[in-house]
Structures are given as structure tokens and as C-alpha cells.
Amino acid sequence: MSATSTAALVIENLSKQFGATRALQSIDFQVERGTVRALLGHNGSGKSTLIKTLGGYHTPDEGKIYVYGTELPPKHSGADAHSAGLRFVHQDLGLVSGLSVAENLALGASYKTSALGTISWREQNRRAKRELHKLHLDIDPRRNVENLGPVERTLVAIARALQDMDHHSGVLVLDEPTARLPRSEVNRLLVIIKNLKSEGVAVIYVTHRLDEVFQVADDLTVLRDGQRIFSGPIAATDEDTVRSLIAGRAMTERATSEASANVQRTGNVVAELHGLSGHRTHDVDLRLYAGEMVAIVGLVGSGRSELGRLIYGLQPASSGSISLRGGPRVAKPTPRWASRAGVGYVPQERTSGLAASQTIAENLAITSFGGLVGWFGVSSQKMLEMGRRVVSRFGVKPNDPTVTISTLSGGNQQKIALGKWTRLDCTLLIMDEPLQGIDVGAKIDILKTIRERVLARGGAVLWLESDIEYVPAYADRVLVMRDGRIATEISSKPVSREDVLMALYGAA
Amino acid sequence: MSGPTLESSTQQQLGSSRQLEPSRRRRHAAGSLLQQYGLLLALIIVTVAFSLLRPHTFATWQNFASILTGDAALALVALGIMLPLVVQQYDLSVGYIATFSSLVTVGVISRHSWPVWQAIALGLVVGLVCGVVNGLLVAYAKLNSLVVTLGVGSALAGAALLYSGGTLISDNIPRSFLRLGQARPAGIPIAFIYTIIGCIVVWYILSYRVVGRQMYAIGGNENAARLAGVRVPFLVFLTFVGGALLASVGGIVQAARVGSSSADSLTSFLLPAFAAAFLSTTAIRPGHFNVWGTLIAVYLVAAGTTGMFMLGAPTYVQPLFNGGILIGAIALFRLTTRHREKAS
User: Which value, to the nearest 10 degrees, does the dihedral of the CA atoms of residues A118, A119, A120, A126 take?
Assistant: First the structure.
């Protein structure tokens, strides 16, 4: 390819397979000097595999990577990628909180030391100041990164990535830098990216937010199911087209509806949110009816997870309130109040909801000892009987409630995390990405059992999800959250995957 | 160990864990039985061994009674240290709380001729207040328990020196007070009876009351307990208060037994009490702090050191032995929990 001599980054025919999944299929990808190429695609499209392959986390099965015309060795390591000039800023930024800005920069490169090996902090701070200045960031390098705002932190992470990179021989990869930024601060970052571009830096910009793409990018690549389905200059396309490309369907059939308010529901209202707001979540009104499973889908930073934490009282709401079964409005819920009122909560990180060193029965019992107490106090016998019931209902393996949680597989652990709530009569079960890291069979088991246990007994389920695969088939209602608001209710029946994806990426 | 572990985990993957052959099941069961009662077995072995070596001094009811009495207070202090450990908090002040309680009790009897029961009540209130302070600072102010209890302990050590003037308080102690520590109803040392009562109460609460189960849950994963609606701060607070009360009972029992108190009468209890609490995690309920394991551990150490003295070991052996036991106990704790994590 002749372009290898001029382009900043060229990827040719890159393929990667994980088991039966073809994560990347002969991907060609190119970034010119001084340009920004946006990389788009939904979860599972191959976008993160591509980035991780570039960074040396994954070894490609096939394909070549050139950085400014030099080919990377076939099984390149992270260090190879770094010395070739590739720089990555990941979504979690990787800053060490508690250390100063200057220290964080030094960790990324090296400390400035005197002849005796003593760190010269004066020189170190001066150097950090210079690096920050390049990004028009005027902050004291001695400040603790903890005390910086989100945009400033992102910029510090970028400064760290750029500090030892030659602008004319490196490529900067930004992996969803704006996902966790408040809307109002995104522009500041975009301006800086444009500046970098004009200074000749080549940038790969991974994002879910289409409007940003059209503000900052020159070129665009869309992946879906491991395949490159679009590549071209930004001018050759528009937001609607890109959205359809990501969702995978023709532009003509747009079909999300605003008619949600008119949908008639018959059951009783189990829970109601009145203008609930938090950091990211704004003014969420929602009614959940007995016997329905409502999925709230949203990308990272949409406020989806926060909504669950606000309802369960794990994070204080800045305004708004919650009422359960027509009861009084509660503005400051706590986990204790919520759990006693029949709300269950299964957190996103499985480990934070389970005691690994304790048995299945002990983990299940903790939600309530009602029914487990005999004449002498808590009865181990009753706990075991209860444990056996839950274990057989969910098909947990091994089907023995005396087994320690840490010995179970992820899927079986998740069944326990859910089982501790479903064994009670839940008014409302909130589950945040309950299917993460679980094999397919277990996913379906879990969803079916939840429907049987909670919905059939007059409860409601609030299912917070970013991966939409199982949502259309198992949710009664699908709401899409964007920028902290419930943006759309998908009312078409049956709900289609494409409808949900279109709404996720902002089709009104 | 990796052989059977590996094999049974593949069995599970095939979904046939029920078919685990009977012989292997039995071996598993025998292994866990040994793990559960190994400490008790060690106590029996040590007792039998010294009894055989010193049949006329060690193997006498008189000696057994003196061992049971001598470490009754230590056992109570060890229970006091164990309670916060259940919720994964450290109380380094128990020895000082015990000392200060005993000092105040003996002090008001000796210097101000207080009635015995009022003096004991005052001693318990002192312990209660210390526990409340520890509990408030750790559970509600969210301060690091190691630092808080070290600070409270140091302050109490100072207060004890101030109150005692650095001397042994032993005058004017009425017989009625001494009887509370020295009597032997039905030949059983009364101090040991207190200890057994303390053990039964704590055991019942931890194993059969909802609060106890919730305390273990906090120890297992504080966040999970909070998510399940457990009042984590309140229960953590309670463990400090309960622990301090047990420690002051221990201090008062010790004072009644020896008929005196000083500013350092029970401060040396910290290390052996910790050792016993950690040893408990290797027995009865492996991987968890538990009452009967703590009691067995206290008397294992007591029997061991007494026997060694009788064999003529010099005094420096005891702290050496205690230190060795403590490190051995936490190493075993680590091993048993790791084994449990790996085991299928």
C-alpha cells in the first residue's frame, strides 16, 4: 500500500478470533497525519478489540500494523506499541488519585533526578507545567488529581500520554474520553483535540456520541459484528446514516415513537419516581406497574446506573422523590428503608454484593431472617432448607447451600446475588447489568426465573442495561436513557434490537 | 491437595457433583473434621503429654483448677477482642480497658470503702464508656480502628498510672470481693464459670441471634451487608461496646481473684488474647472468628506454658511462645481461608 509512507497509522487486514467469535474480520483502518478518525460501533462490534490489539493486549491472528511507515513486530507488546509512538488514554484514565499532577506525569515517563538520584521536585513541577501548558491547561502541577474536575483530569491523562510523544511521529488513541464527562464540559475537550490536530497530531477518537464525531472528526470508521461497514470522510455522511450503520438497518424504517404517554396500563403502580435527579440524572419521572419488567438501556455515562443507586439510596438525590405502592414520597431513601419496603438491588459489580468467604445459605439469608428463626433463635436448619429451595429454583451448581461463594462460577454467583432478593416478596427488584460475564444458558435461566419469581407475584423489575442483546425478548417495556434523561420509550411491539440501537444513538 | 480439588471441579463442570464417590466424600469429611477439631485435639494432646511427663504436678485437679482460674480473665478479654474482629475491626485497647476497670473497682473499694456491688458496677460503667468512645469513633466517625483503639488504650494507660500512682492497690479488700474470684462452688473455680457464661452468651448472640448473623455478614463483606439493609454502623458500634464490657468483666474477675490491681495488671493480655482470637479461625468454624475456638486456644496456650514451666523452662519462653502462636495462628488462618477459596 502506497499510503504506508505518508499515513500516521495503517492497519491492514487485521483479524482476531476468540473461540467461535470473529471479533475482527480483515479490518483495514488508516489515520492520516494531523487528522482525527472517529471509531464507532456498539458493544461487541469489535471496537475495543481493535484498540486492545493496537495496544498489544491482544495478538492479532492476521494482519499488519504500520506506524508512520514502520511495521510493528507481529506479536508486539505494550512496550513495542509505546516505542512506536502509540499513546492510549483509556476511559478510566488510569491516574493515581492521592498523587499530584506532576507525580502522575512522572509516573508515565520518568522522574527528573539530580546527580545523586534525588528527585528534583522543582524541575519536575516545571516540566509538568510546560506539558500542561501545551494543552492550555493552567493548573498548579502540585495539586492532587483528586481535587481536579473531570475535564481537567482527562486533560492531565492526555498530557501524560503526549509528554514523551513526538507530535509528528505518534498516534493518540482516545477511548471514550467524554463518556464520563458532563455535557457542558465536552466542548473544552473538543477544542483541545482540534488544537492537537492542527499541530499535526494523528488521533483515533472512540466514542458513542455522534454529535462530537461531527464536530471534531475528519474521517469515520464504523464497525459492526467485527466487520468494517463504513469508512470514509465525515463530509460523505450524516448523523442519521451513521446511526443506521451502527444499528444495522436501512435508514428508511425509523420507528421509535413518542406515544409512550398514551400507553394504557392495567396493573397497580408499584413504584413511582417523581423528578428524580442526581449528578448525571435529571428529572426522571417513571411509573412501574405490578408484573412488568422495565428495561432502561443507556450507554456509559447516560445516568442509567446512577438511577438505580438513587432509588436504592446509595447516592443522595439532589431533588425529586420516590414512592412505593402509593405510599408517601420519600426524598432521601436509604438501603435500609428500601430493602425493608421490599426493594431489592443487585449491583453491577457482582463481588460488591456477596460475601465471598461465606456459604450460599449465609449469603441468601442476609436480606431477611424472617422465617428463618426457630424457638432458639436463627435456625441453621431453616437456612439450609431455604438455601436448597433457591439453589434448585435457579439451577445453581453445585446444588448445595453449604458451599462457599468464592468456589462458584460467575454465573452461579450471580444467581445467588439475585436469589437473595427473589426469595422474598419483592415490590421492586433493581438489577444493574445482571448478565455481565455469564454464559448464555445461565443468562436465559436467570431472566426466566426473575420473571417467574418477581413478576408473577405482583412485583416489578427495573432492569438497567447497556448490552441490549436480551432486552427485546425479555423486557415488557424498553426505555432509553441519554444524557441523564429518559429520552425515548420504545413502544413498538415486538421491540426490535435496531429500534433500541437507533434510540441509544440519539434518534428522536 | 490440588489433586482432589482439580478433579472435583471438573466433575462439577460436567454437572455431576452429586456423583462424587463415597470414599472421596468421606475423606473430605475427615479432612474438615480434623480442621474443625484440630485445635481441641492439640489441647488434649498437650494436656496428656504434660500429664505423662509430670504426673504428680501437672496431672492434678489442683493444677487444672489453677490453670482454669488463672486464664479465665484472659479468656474474657480474648472474647472482647474477638467481637470487633468478627466485623473486621481491631480493638487494641481491650487490655487497657480491662486494667482500668479493675483498677477503678479495686480503687474505690480500697480507698473509699465502696460497697462491692457498687464498685463492680462502676468498673463496668468505665468499660462501657470506653467501648462507647471506641464504637462512636470507629463506626460513626469512620476512623481507623487500629489508630483509634491504640490512642484510647494509650490514654487509658496514662489514666491508670495517674489513678494508681504507680503502686499496687491491695489494702482493705473485703473477703466478700475476694470470694467472687476465688470461690469454688462444687469444686469448680468460679472464675471459670464466669468465662463459660460469657462464652455461652456471646456464642448464642453470634450464632442464633439475627444481630450476630448480621455481624458475621459485615465481616464477610461490609458493602454487601449494607446493600441488604443491615445497620452496619450500629452493629460495629455494638461489637466495640460488647467487647469493652467483656474486657472489663475480665479485669474485675482478675482483680477479685488476686485481690489487688495496678496500672499494668492486665496490659500484657493484648498479645495472647489476639493470638487466641486468631487461632479460633482455624477451628470449630474454620475461617471465622468463633467463641469456642477462642476458649480452646486460650487454654491450649495456658496448658502449654504451664507445662513448660513445670519442665523447667525459663521465663522468657512464655512471650516467645505467645509470639510464635500468634504468627502461627494468622498463617493458619490465611491457609485455611485460601484453602476454602480454592476448594470446590
Answer: 170
Cβ atoms of residues A119 and A112 within 8 Å: yes
* Bridge partners (DSSP) listed for residue A64: A12
Contacts of A211 (CB under 8 A, 6+ apart): A239, A506
Is the ipTM beyond the 0.90 threshold? no
The residue type of A229 is I
pLDDT tens readout for residues B32-57: 777 788 888 888 988 999 999 999 98
Within 8 A of A345 by CB-CB distance, chain B residues are 227
Q: Tell me which chain B residue has its CA closest to the CA of residue A354.
A: B224
> Do B67 and B302 touch, CB atoms closer than 8 A?
yes
Q: Which residue of A lies nearest to B219 if distances are taken between CA atoms?
A: A355
Distance CA A91, CA B300 (A): 55
Interface contact A373-B210, CB threshold 8 A = yes
What single DSSP character describes residue A61? S
A384 is written with which cell numbers?
Answer: 439450609
Cell of A113: 533526578
Q: Which residues of A touch B17 (CB under 8 A)?
A: 397-400
With CA atoms as reference, report the closest residue to A497 among A297, A304, A301.
A297
**For residue A294, what are the β-bridge partners?**
A462, A477
Rounded to an integer, what distance in angstroms lies between the CA atom of residue B234 and that of residue A136? 49
Test A369 with B210 for CB contact under 8 angstroms: yes
Q: Is A402 on the interface with B (CB under 8 A)?
A: no
Q: Taking each helix axis from N to C terminus, what angle separates B291-310 and B22-53, rounded to the nearest 10 degrees?
A: 40
User: Which residues have a Cβ under 8 Å from the Cβ of A427 and sit 6 or more positions away?
Assistant: A270, A271, A324, A325, A341, A342, A343, A459, A460
Cβ contact (<8 Å) for A354 and B224?
Answer: yes
Q: How far is B12 from chain A (nearest CA, A)?
A: 7
Q: What is the mean pLDDT of residues A164-189?
A: 85
**Closest residue on chain B to A368 (Cα):** B228
Check if A373 contacts B (Cβ < 8 Å). yes
Q: Could you give the 3-state DSSP secondary structure of residue A377?
A: strand
Residues A9, A67 contacting (CB under 8 angstroms): yes
Handedness of CA B171, B174, B175, B179 (dihedral sign): negative
Averaged over A53-80, what is the pLDDT? 90
Q: What is the pLDDT of residues B286-328, one digit of tens each?
A: 889 999 999 999 999 888 888 888 888 888 888 888 788 778 7
Question: What is the amino acid identity at position B285?
Answer: R
Closest by CA position to B30, among listed B21, B40, B39, B38: B38
- Chain CA centroid to CA A142, Å: 31
Q: Which residue has the higher pLDDT, B35 or B279?
A: B279
In DSSP notation, B82-120 reads HHHHHTT---TTHHHHHHHHHHHHHHHHHHH---HHHHH
Query: d(Cα B325, Cα B329) in Å, to the nearest integer?
Result: 6
- Which one-letter DSSP state was computed for residue B140? I
By three-state DSSP, how is residue A272 classified?
Answer: strand
Task: Tell if the CB–CB gap between A377 and B207 is shorter than 8 Å.
Answer: yes
Q: Which residues of B touch A406 (CB under 8 A)?
A: 340-341
Query: Does A352 contact B210 at a Cβ distance shorter than 8 Å?
Result: no
